[in-house]
Amino acid sequence: MSVPDTHAGQPRKAAMAAWIGSALEYYDFFIYGSAAALIFPEVFFDESDPATATLLSLATFGVAYAARPVGALFLGHFGDRVGRKKIMVFTLILMGISTFLIGCLPTRDQVGTLAPVLLVLCRVLQGISAAGEQASANSMTLEHAPPHRRGFFTSFTLSGTQGGQLLATLVFIPIAALPEEQLMSWGWRVPFWMSVAVAVVGYVIRRKLDETPAFEQQAATEGVVKLPLAVLLREHWADVLRVIGGALVASVSTIFTVWALSYATSDSVGMDKSSMLWVGALANLVALGAIPLWATLSDRIGRRPVFLAGAAGSAVTMFLYLWAISTGSYPLTLLLGIVAFGVVYSAANGVWPSFYGEMFSTRVRLSGMAIGTQIGFAVAGFAVTFAAQIAGPDGDDWSAVALFTAALCVPPVVAALSARETAKVPTEQLGERTVGQAAQPAKVTA
């Protein structure tokens, strides 16, 4: 039995909704990263101890990643029960509201220690939202995509995150250039207030998107799974572990985006804030083009080799990038930043949405992606805090941070080497425990 094809044109609509929604969602998420590195140590923490203030500020960046696994359990469950579309709308609105509230928070000088407490609470809401965003958008695009172009279409979710990061960086460049008094009083709040537009635009875009034919067929024939987590852990536990290991590659992004920015603009290196923000902006601009190209290549030669190239290559290029920062040479830093983040990291970043999603069947896909990625991303989020400690009391031991980042690239390599190649597997056979044999469906409930 099959569901009639009433979804003509939906693959492009789903990809665009994923791109725009993820861009808007991760605009919110990444402006926090920039503020945590440049603004919040002075606004929310004790200025008399700059090193500790920076460490605590970077720790609040990681708090959202700690909240992500909890959000993944909740949103993954309902995403496999009620559909991808409703979760996509919910996560976007939650992110917009929580980010707007950050821009309204009182400072430490105004309310004392209550200020960082409120900041952490808003950050937790951001983390819960992000937990369901990528998994629902990836599931939506994968299930709408033509079988031979799943890599290309699902990559739009990650192109969107890079677009959001680019937008966040471009917004912060003029903000960072404000006079210090204006920057610390009201200037830093403006990018957060703009999240009102995020919620409105995101809602309009996503509410018009159809549910996926794969989910509708699952619901109409076998029914939806009553307890997706139970089925996931029984039938796909090894793939969940692979996704957790693979997701550690996101540490490259958080180290590049937050710790390297903090290090480059510290007294030990002394690079200009606006100039370093341009490194991130240009690297993300290159990534916007590189991600769909890597994804298209994975449709031809497979997910595993492209992902492996990105994960292993990032271990090397991030070492070179941090070394370039240590020299104080801006041209060298710009060049290697673009190579490391814009080109090499994009290979893994552009392929993982299809690579991970194809490991699971429709009935538990959103749960599998959400839980697996968010546990791995939680480690990646706190990688910034660990890096700040590893860098020593002066925060300038870049080589230790480079080795730490390289070590976090090892589990993704192992995960990819142990995974099945799924690029050529028909969509309806994805998630079967033995590719090419009929799947044994779990007991489901309509």
Task: Describe the 3D structure.
With 446 residues, the chain is mostly helical. The chain is 76% helix and 0% strand. The protein has helices at 10-38, 40-43, 50-82, 84-104, 108-111, 114-144, 150-176, 180-185, 190-193, 195-207, 213-220, 228-235, 237-247, 251-264, 273-301, 303-327, 330-357, 365-390, 398-408, 410-418. It is globular.
What is the subunit arrangement here? single chain
Q: Total helix count?
A: 20
What is the CA–CA distance across the termini?
16 Å
Arithmetic mean of pLDDT:
85
Kindly state the percentage of residues in helix.
over 70%
Using DSSP, what is the number of strands?
0
Return Rg in Å: 21 Å
Which stretches are poorly predicted, pLDDT < 50 over at least 5 residues? 1-6, 434-446
Strand content: under 5%
Largest sheet: none
Give the overall shape, derived from the CA principal axes: globular
Q: Write down the secondary-structure element order.
A: HHHHHHHHHHHHHHHHHHHH
Q: What structural class results from the helix and strand content? A: mainly alpha
Q: What's the topology here?
A:
Layout: H1 10-38, H2 40-43, H3 50-82, H4 84-104, H5 108-111, H6 114-144, H7 150-176, H8 180-185, H9 190-193, H10 195-207, H11 213-220, H12 228-235, H13 237-247, H14 251-264, H15 273-301, H16 303-327, H17 330-357, H18 365-390, H19 398-408, H20 410-418
Helix pairs in contact: 1-3, 1-4, 1-6, 1-7, 1-10, 1-14, 3-4, 3-6, 3-18, 4-6, 4-10, 6-7, 6-18, 7-15, 7-17, 13-18, 13-20, 14-15, 14-16, 14-18, 15-16, 15-17, 16-17, 16-19, 16-20, 18-19
Protein name: MFS transporter
Pfam families: Sugar_tr
Subcellular location: Cell membrane
